[in-house]
Amino acid sequence: MIWILGITLTLYTIYYAHSRMLIRLRYSNIFLGIGICLFYLVQLQNLYEDSSQKSAMSDGDQSTVTVDAVPDVVLERWRAIDAVLLVLGATLAVLGSLYIELNFTRLFEDAPVLGYETNDYIVGGILMLLVIDATRRAFGNLIAVVTIVSILYAHHWFAPYMPGLLNHTGFTWEQIIREGAVSLSGIYHDTVVGIGTTWVAIFIMFAGIAKAYGLMDWVLEVGRELGTTLRTGVVQIALIASMIMGSITGSAAANTATTGSFTIPMLKEQGIRPDFAAAMESVASSGGQMLPPIMGVAAFLMADILGVQYVQIIQAGTIPALLFYFSVGVALHLVVTKHGWTETDTTPFDKSVLVNGLKFLPALAVLIYGLVVMRLTPLSAGLYTIITMWIVALATTAISDRSVAGVRTEIYNTLKGLRDGAIEMAPLVGVLAAMGIIIEMLVNTGLAQKVSTALVSMGAGALVLVLVFAMIASILFGLGMPTPAAYILVVILVAPGIIDLGIQDITAHMFVFYFAMLSAITPPVAIAVAVGSRIGNADFNKTCVQALRIGAPGFLIPYSFIVNESLIYWSFPDTLIAFPMVLVGTVALVITTIGYDGSRRLNYLFRSVFLVLAFGALYGAVVSVALQGISAFLIASLIVIGSKEISLPLTDPTE
């Protein structure tokens, strides 16, 4: 069933991208039903495999004490109950979607005027419960609890008793279910779910297909080879791999779990301390959410919410991503060299490993050409990219291996890619639908507007204070959230307050989004750090400290967008002037936090000097571009001087 539903869902998405045979709302309903059903079946399979493994371990260990049998029996009963619930959930997801499909015309056209039936409310309530449960299973309790709290907050039982700006009149259960599902809003929210089931889905599915054709294996192979050629070993390669994969996954924690299972052991083998290894992977995975063209699927949502071309979001996100990753790359280099974790036996790079990656270049070229040059929608660009990937794979097989076994392998990889793409998309279906519920509750109760107004009031209209409060709020709203959920929350609750003070839309969205992503390495939750420290067997608190040191510039870079808006809205020559200056400023911040400039350890006096100059390079344009330029020049001069041994003529040899 997983194979059938997975292949069906991916082919359904590809066919819709080609034909657009239904309106997006109707297409999304069918996608939602299949997607949640597929997710539950994958969960059921995982439950069965875990049970089988534990049973095998128990059979292999004959010394099991009798007292342990009681918890095992209880556990098995819970597993049996959970299995039944998963089967029930998968069945209800399909039946609920089928009910909406069969009654779509009535619900879409007639019911808003003539009223809804009792069955509509029952099906709507069941679908909302399924969405919340799927979200809980996929991303933990936090976002599921937030969804439930938003529903309870909207209800008239609690609304009148809420203090201050939280107070409102409240809704009945019928109104909540109507807004949450049966009016074809909420779990069918056109911006969140509509974009998620089209633009987001096509890219996630492309990633699944590319992985089936060996993309991840090739990246790791190149990483291992480069690790033997660089003085810093696999550190930078782990950064790049996590950055690329993190952009696709849409969750810093999920990316840390997947790429971290490979990179963290590699880093530890190089001699890097466990807390540093886990911190490096956590920061890289969190930053991957900021990397265009996907930006952890937030780029698609941002383009639709702002009503701008997708290519504008790619452009706006490029320099912020470069600033963050350059600063992290420098930080990793300095950390490794400072502690002496460098590789001593380096070998020349074997260029033959690059050959296996050539088959991915045509698809990448089609993707870039379609998005940047032809200005296609992500759905169309993704369609042509997948088709290109298939054509190249078939051509490669026809040229290199014409045997029956080779053709069979290629067919299997293709089908596996179709299945895996849908499986990787399935967990996002629930969380996107849950975010649709949250949006409807927050907007209809008026809370979103009230929070934005309160944000400006707390800052007394002063931009700096409002930005600080916005930063804190964005980090808090992003704690433990996957990328789409974090972005949606901060853009509804926080971004309007910044825009009201005259900041341009994309700049404000990038500002709050940046901090929402950094919440993945921010204590006390620091979800990416928690996953990384578990993989690396490192202390969570120590790993948090190192993650904050490595990623510290990220907490100051967003403010440079406000001061230098040419970093977001490119212009000549402003961008060419601002970018290198801010880049040098981020290097100074890294040197300050690491306490090392590449050749010597720095005392607190020197670190303070670098910190002051960093602020000048990042924000000096508020006073004058000349101040910004002088600060950047002094930083570069200090780094150059520090890297050279200055010998002076000595009058006394003992001096």
From TrEMBL:
Residues 127-568 form the TRAP C4-dicarboxylate transport system permease DctM subunit domain. InterPro entries: DctM (IPR010656), TRAP_DctM-Dct_fused (IPR011853). It holds the Pfam family DctM. It comes from the Archaea. The keyword Transmembrane applies. This is TRAP-type transport system permease protein. The keyword Membrane applies.
